[in-house]
Automatic annotation (TrEMBL):
The chain crosses the membrane at residues 44-62, 116-133. It comes from the Bacteria. This is MFS transporter. Keywords: Membrane, Transmembrane, Transmembrane helix.
Length: 141
């Protein structure tokens, strides 16, 4: 018999670890670089625009994740459920990676420009989109 509880726990753990990484990496960069003046001030607006545009990648990914989530939960404890859970894990990981792109672009933006506000904004946007990939709490015990 197939038990989905370990898979729900794994989905929750992956979501927590990647969310924590997106939260801590910018904080560590600001602490390490301190009062940074930046190397390339002309890249401020284009990099911020690229960071915001990278959110479009997660729209396509979220649709795939949502379908995989519905399919894996719908199969219950059948024999086909293992492959559905593998697809769900892959879609969650790829979706979280796409959701983390604005925060990663924000790191490059901070290195080039040295401004904290765009770093914080893109980090918040990434964390907000990562909430979409959080496994439903009612199903995780």
């Amino acid at each position: 018999m197939f038990d989905p509880k370990p898979h729900w726990r794994a989905l929750r753990s992956v979501w927590r670890m990647l969310s924590l990484a997106v939260l801590l990496l910018p904080i560590l960069l600001v602490v390490v670089l301190g009062d940074w003046t930046g190397l390339f001030d002309e890249a401020a607006v284009p990099l911020f625009g690229v960071g915001m545009a990278s959110l479009m990648l997660t729209l396509w990914r979220f649709r795939l994740y949502k379908r995989a989530l519905i399919r894996a939960e719908g199969l219950g404890e059948s024999h086909e459920a293992a492959s559905a859970w593998a697809v769900l894990h892959r879609n969650q990981s790829l979706g979280l990676a796409a959701a983390a792109l604005p925060a990663l672009i924000a790191l490059v933006h901070y290195f080039c420009v040295g401004e904290v506000i765009p770093l914080v904004l893109l980090m918040i946007v990434s964390l907000g989109v990562m909430l979409l990939y959080r496994p439903p709490a009612a199903w995780v015990d």
